[in-house]
Amino acid sequence: MALPLVTEECEAVIRAFSGLGGLGVDEKALVSALGKWRRQPEKRAQLRKSFVGFFTADGSFERCEDDYIRYLKNEFARFKNIMVLWAMHPWERDARWVHHVLHKPLPLDIIVEIACTRSSEELLGARKAYHALFHHSLEEDVAYHVRENYSNLLVRLVSAYRYEGNRINKEMATSEAEALYSAIKTPGVKKLVENEEVIRILTTRSKPHLRVTFKHYKEKYGKSIEEHLGDELCLRETVQCLDSPPKYFSKVINKALKDGADKNTKDALTRVIVSRADVDMKEIKEAYHQQYGAELEDVISKNTLGSYRDALLSLAGQ
Amino acid sequence: MATLKVPATVPSPSEDAEQLRKAFAGWGTNEALIISILGHRTAARRRAIRQAYHQTYNEDLLKSLDGEISGDFERAVLLWTLDPAERDAWLANEAVRKWRPGNRVLIEIACARSSRELFAVRQAYHARFKRSLEEDVAAHTTGDFRKLLVPLVSAYRYENAEVNLTLAKSEAKMLHEKISGKAYNHEDLIRILATRSKAQLVATFNYYNDEFGNSVNKDLKCDPKDEFLAALRAAIRCICFPERYFEKVIRSAINGLRTEENALTRVITTCAEVDLKEIAEVYQKRNSMPLEHAIKGDTTGDYEAMLLALLGQEA
Asked: Which key words are in the record (chain A) (predicted)?
């Protein structure tokens, strides 16, 4: 049986339902379709026949696919999520994100992101909020729920209270760059993510100090430490977040807007825009432009829909 | 409870500052005056006096003191005058620079203070030393001690009295397993000790005692020469019964079994505004002698007078 031609009208509604990709749903277009198609059930029938993925033929009618209903739930909820997160206290936001990561199958780099891109006071605030919300300390839960190799690194990252002044010790930065190189290049019995010296340097030194260390590393060894870390999960994110949050965040955003991104990767877009809107949005846009040659606002406009898009652009705009 | 005695009416900070300046004036120093003022003022007052002194004489009070007094007396006055958080930061920095496995200062600060107090110490450390406390501890300690101490000083324990008994049981069993297997530096052991709330730890150790017949510390005593085990035991005692821990430190210092220098000064100055009363009570019970007597017998001169003032003796 030949598939019916999809009319322009139908395609518009399919797009509004997030059926052609993009994050969020176009609420206005959906509401206007309600109005336009009044007393025209054949238009709805045509939609159901054209909207492969949402509906599937089942005998004498088209039924909904459960998977798509779940997918739609997420897409409709993007606007709700961004608004609730925006209203929430940043400390509660961060505490809740860490808690989610520990209790659901979510990538550990969210913990790295929070531990390394927040200021020392903001991280302390998240720990206070965690006490109040979950009746445990943040580090207690990270230590308990993250097992094996990554536990030590992550516990130390979330427990850090880094010095925030600009004073650095150049000789120390130099010698620690060398120590990092030696740890990376010399395969030990334990994995790199458990290496005591690597952990010590990355989890206790101040951020200005580490930036000088990374700079020296690149000058001395020709490649950035990030490149040498290759595929090392968590360690690579740690270095990226400590070195330049805007660069890191622009990468996360880029991944979220790619085709075929999974749910967690897509959710990162909301997380980044909401948590950075008041912090370094300008720098993230610059970094995005530098890395991908496009304006972040344009890319968001093209790849998101409805109120969700409007919310993102409001936060990411001037 | 504090042993510090403050007079009913206290002169203004600038009056106190003026009197202190007089104590330094001319030849010699009026130590008794220094003790009678500083030894009877709260932390907030002492801070105000330092501010007033600095405003009027354009010099830090502690710097002036440094030029006028010395030895144990100076150390006691310096430590006492500092804010609690600054004091702990100062002591921590000294401990880090002169690190030895037998040093207990970091353990005391990390385990006997409340979560909030420990965080205030970390803030004071930033301000004074331009580095983080954990950075220095990590850089100056090695091996098992670093594995234990860095998490301890970085902890921000939940402070409520809630206890999860199921968890206490399972973690007591885990501890017993690791201790029996002599895996004292095992990640799980350190994780439990360094991250659980104090109430949860007390419940865990109680269960351990009930279930396995020995207290945790008894089982950790199997090698009396092992410094790491001693550190673990000290941490546990600071968490569970700080007053008994500090009584022992004072007792060892007074009996001349000096495991550390300056222990007596440290305990008296850090506890006088907190729980020195309870510690003194434990001391009296255990040694059948009031702490004041023991101090009188073991110390002399201005140093003795300062310690006694902090113990609440009137001038």
From this structure: Annexin, Calcium, Calcium/phospholipid-binding, Metal-binding, Repeat
